[in-house]
Design a protein that fits this description.
alpha+beta; Immunoglobulin-like; four-stranded antiparallel β-sheet; 30% helix; Lipoprotein; signal
Length: 205
């Protein structure tokens, strides 16, 4: 009888140890998962750059720079505000309820911007950047993807383009009488040829 009780006690002790080890492994796995989630970069979460192209267009007689698939409605656009500032416009109907914030990420910097709903044939959410805001210069100098998030909607990752620099600088230098930047020339830079060879230097005459 004593031997049977000793064997039962040993079995229960081993089972308790096994449950304790399983709990420790589970805790370690959870900690590791939280650590991995913490160090994920915005680019990994965003899942790739959006398909489309930057192109010149016109909205309400104002020249704009917009992004979207070829031949389709744009998903995002930049527009001068007529005061040397800039509008960031996320195209699409506004969600019901209170308007969300727009978050703009460039590299390690993220800014939260209030939006207003703009109706029309193509509704959109518009965030304004004042001309004295350093964000205007940061946007003009940025050479990496732009990540735009509006509320809980999926992030929109926009590719970098020299056209953004050209357009934003044009907004910053707009004439005082050029209402809404209507006269700004939007030059969309063409891709550089692959394996382009520099021209040979000419001999001095």
């Amino acid at each position: 009888m004593a031997a049977r009780r000793a064997a039962l006690f040993a079995f229960l002790l081993l089972a308790a140890c096994a449950r304790s080890e399983d709990a420790n492994v589970l805790a370690e796995d959870n900690d590791e998962a939280r650590t991995v989630e913490h160090v994920r970069t915005p680019e990994e979460d965003d899942g790739g750059v959006a398909l489309g192209e930057w192109r010149a267009s016109v909205q309400d007689d104002a020249n704009v720079l917009e992004f979207g698939p070829a031949g389709a409605t744009p998903v995002f656009s930049l527009r001068c505000d007529g005061r040397r500032g800039l509008f960031l416009q996320r195209h699409g109907a506004a969600p019901t309820g209170d308007l969300p914030m727009m978050m703009l990420t460039m590299g390690s910097e993220t800014r939260r911007l209030a939006v207003v709903s703009v109706g029309g044939a193509t509704p959109l959410l518009r965030a304004a950047i004042m001309p004295q805001d350093p964000l205007v210069g940061q946007l003009a100098r940025n050479t990496g993807p732009l990540v735009v998030r509006v509320g809980d909607s999926p992030p929109l990752v926009l590719p970098a383009s020299p056209s953004i620099t050209t357009y934003v600088n044009g907004c910053a230098n707009v004439r005082a009488d050029d209402e809404d930047g209507a006269d700004i020339s939007v030059n969309v830079a063409a891709p550089a040829p692959v394996n382009q060879t520099a021209p040979a230097a000419q001999n001095a005459q």
